[in-house]
Amino acid sequence: MTKDIFACMRESQAVRTFKQDDIPEADLTRIIEAACWAPSAGNLQPWYFYVVKNERVKAAIAEVCFEQEQIEAAPVCVVIMADPAKSNDQYGERGAQLYCLQDTAAAAENMILAADALEIGSCWVGAFDERKVQQAVEAPPRLRAVAIICLGYSNEQGRDGKERYRVAEVTKIIH
């Protein structure tokens, strides 16, 4: 049984303290599948996912993410890479500089929502040295590190809901 998608969007929060319980492979596969279902410009799907469970590799990634401890604390980290050349072939520079990033961001959000639906915590990490993350996972030079998603069961207790602007504060309807 999974949570309603609207509940996932409303209730999910970044988790930085994780239990060390393994994520079942079937659940991990479902999370990656959800990422693959994300929309992408021209349906090019310019993403690649490095699923990192190795402690040594997670430590190397954490070091180049300005020592963000949740990377080592999480049982799994997924490095989401974009392939700008794939988008460039069809859309030129705008594809390489923007569309592939939008596409991988959509995949990252799908991953977070799927994890929450399965009651698995997550944390989106965006502060890192791209080149060094790429080297840590031994990715080919053509791929660009866009996001790292930490996954695991939350070890955090009783957090308040997240504050959000009201729709009227961030919306203008043009008739």
Automatic annotation (TrEMBL):
UniProt xrefs under Gene3D superfamilies: NADH Oxidase
Cofactor dependence: FMN
InterPro entries: Nitroreductase, Nitroreductase-like
Pfam families: Nitroreductase
Keywords, sorted A to Z: Flavoprotein, FMN, Oxidoreductase
Transmembrane helix recorded as keyword: no
GO molecular function: oxidoreductase activity
Domain spans labelled Nitroreductase: 14-72
Top-level taxon: Bacteria
PANTHER family in alphabetical order: NAD(P)H NITROREDUCTASE YDGI-RELATED, NITROREDUCTASE
Family designation: Belongs to the nitroreductase family.
UniProt protein name: Nitroreductase
Taxonomic source organism: Dendrosporobacter quercicolus
